[in-house]
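A quick aside before the break. I want you to see a complete sequence-to-structure record at least once, exactly as it would be stored in a machine-readable document. Don't worry about memorizing anything.
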Amino acid sequence: MSRWTFVWCGVMIACAGFAAAATLPSGVTAKDAPNDDGGSGLVLTWSHTPSTSDPALTGFQILRRPANEGDIASITPKPLPPDARTYSDDSAAPPKRGVSNLREEGTSYVYVVRALYEGGATSDSLESKPATAHPNFFDTSKVSVLLMTWAFGAVLLYLIRQARRGKKPTIRRIAGLEAVDEAIGRATEMGRPILYCSGIGGVDEVATIAAINIFSNVTKKAGEFGTRILAPCRDPIVTQVMQSVSEQAYADIGRPDAYHAEDVHFLTQSQFAYAAAVDGEMVRERPAAVFLQGVFFAESLILAETGNSVGAIQIAGTDKESQLPFFLAACDYTLIGEELFAASAYLSGDDLLLSTIRAQDAGKAFLMAALVVGILLQAAGFDLIAQWFTAGQ
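That is the input. The structure line, written in tokens, reads:
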């Protein structure tokens, strides 16, 4: 046997000795990622404490294979750092199921963690137990949200029950809504129509829905006095909805003959062309009362100034904070913030609807109290309230 053969054998024996001496990663565990829809895949954890006799650890490599069959292969394009002890395998997530974005159970996998050492030595852990990624039924990190929802629901049910027993809820006076009867009465006395503008938003906007609810109440009151109400619309779908609401409102007060479909009419979907058309209608018809309710943007002051110029009493309301200053400057009354959403319950006087407003107020009072208590506890070094409200984020 030649001298080079002995040298080669010696090198191979040394490498084998290094490999045998290297400490194996242990405790390899694969689990489904918690509190998700299955899209986070599997989470792999392991432990590894290198021996002093081991070569220098350079990193880890994750190998995976299907539990039933298949060859094991690396799923990490580059080695993980030496201090890594966990790895998230997003590629193990099951695919989405059609347009519903729901997920079924994924493929079951087993894993091996390979430790990489200087000189090319490696050591492989034992295979993990099979694990499968699947959607979780409940996100346990959001228990606080569930408890607060239950609490709010309990308060709401209690107030509704009290209302059915004859204890009518009371909410604070809202000047803009108290003036609705005044505006309608003024139009009736002057023999001039009412103009109701529901803004430029679509029917999918919450403020537009609130404006349509207010329109129903205003139409009923105007119908009782025989006062014509004009409603120019920007969106064709909103036009159809408001026509149906108007027809139903007249039917509810026993005056279906007072309904005229042309009074609720579509103008144009162009923002400023719509504003110009409404202004022209104000100048021609000279309404005694103008309602500007819903979604408004740059056209808000244009509409409000024109309504003011024809001498109309104006009641405005929007959820766009940037437009409130213009309404406050040019209109007689302005619904600020959530007053717009409470208007339907306020005008109808329905006990059940008023109960929902009271329940919301109770929820806001609780949040304000929690904010104050949380600030005090945080200043004292306790973050219990902060953890409660930030859980699951």
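Two observations worth writing down. The chain has three domains: 3-132, 140-165+353-390, 175-349. The longest helix spans residues 351-379. We'll return to this after the break.
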